[in-house]
Amino acid sequence: HWSRICSRLQAEVGEVEYRTWLKQISIGPVDGDEITLNLPTRFLRDWVRTQYGDRLSALWNAELPSIRRVELQVGRAEPVADPADAGEGGGSADAAPVAAVDERVAEARSELSRHDLAAPLDPRFTFDTFVVGKPNEFAYACARRVAERPSSPGFNPLFLYGGVGLGKTHLMHAIGSELTRGGKVSVAYMSAEKFMYRFIAAIRSQSTMEFKEQLRSVDVLMIDDLQFLIGKDNTQEEFFHTFNALVDAGRQIVVSADKSPSDLSGLEDRLRTRLGCGMVADIHATTFELRISILESKAAASGVAVPAKVLEFLAHKITSNVRELEGALNRLIAHANLFGRPVTLEATQDVLHDILKAHDRRVTIEEIQRKVAEHWNIRLTDMSSARRARAVARPRQVAMYLAKQLTSRSLPEIGRKFGNRDHTTVMHAVARVTELMERDTAFAEDVELLRRMLES
Ligand code: ADP
Ligand code: MG
Q: Which PANTHER family does its entry note (predicted)?
């Protein structure tokens, strides 16, 4: 029976897989409706159980209907000779090669656990430390969902995308930490770049089999910054196969990139298609409110009192990515700790002089006026005119607001550029626009759009 089952399996899975995994099975005793199969290590047992368990039961049952269950055990028990198969089927003649493969596998495994295959997870990047706001709430919810119930239909793969420094890596690590906490789930996280180097190294050392085995032995595979694989066709190909093998085996894949699957031109079509098959979640650019929340949370964690004014100032000045925002705050905090001085707005401008200069967008007030006038279809001269009709007054206020946000000009300087208006007029405009943006989402979107156009 066993030899017939073996030849079936061999035909089904191919010679290599058969020799690596299944040939190492030896038959144990039959007990009622259950047959015990032995494997030399726990890893092999788990692997065979997850990969071939159902198939083995089905084949045994087809051969011997009295057998309904297959029990996989760790052990090197002498095989109980199958009457039809004397001396075959993983007996002592195979002991040496088994040990060799076993060693290789054990090595591969320990490499995995030494984080050689995967990068270690950063303990700071957890769900708890991730600040949720409108721009990232969907991605956050998806990440949480995957961490709670990996491999759920509809969420596999999870594809996270968004600009630099918006929290993609943070969320991936959070998923990983959450899942590995119980100790039951094996997670491999690595950048696409690392994936490629590992793949190339494996080719060079003729160990692609081991590399594939390692990759395919994890429960959750997370590949960060997939856009790196654009133009790297062989690595893409390898990733595609790994991807399919894992998803088909019911494992979870999480991928991040800077663009949506459909916008990742340069990736193979079939890969893009599969990447878009699960859940695609984008992280949008931060809003002022989210930047404030993030700063507040990080300031609170640091234990240094940072005045709201300073946080607002930073959130206004550093808008492009959270990493830089965090970096600026950390520097302020380090300074405060080092010199034991309170954090003030003046100190901030001083300490962060270089960062702030780099973030002074070169956008000019004239540019802002032009874009805003175009957008609402008013004359450029109305930016400086005395007309108070709402149709021109409102765009003018938006332009002032954007000038305050996007340039480092002072209120009086801005006022002068708008037909010599007073700085209190600019102040009023900023307050008015902020208030309107909160009340009117369509208006807020208009302003955000203008800001993005001007920033890019
Ligand atoms: P990405 O991978 O998208 O380029 P990261 O995940 O590396 O961005 O985030 C950059 C930095 O900003 C990290 O230190 C991360 O902890 C922090 N960060 C990003 N978004 C948030 C957030 N919503 N809450 C807290 N920290 C965040
Ligand atoms: Mg990242």
A: CHROMOSOMAL REPLICATION INITIATOR PROTEIN DNAA
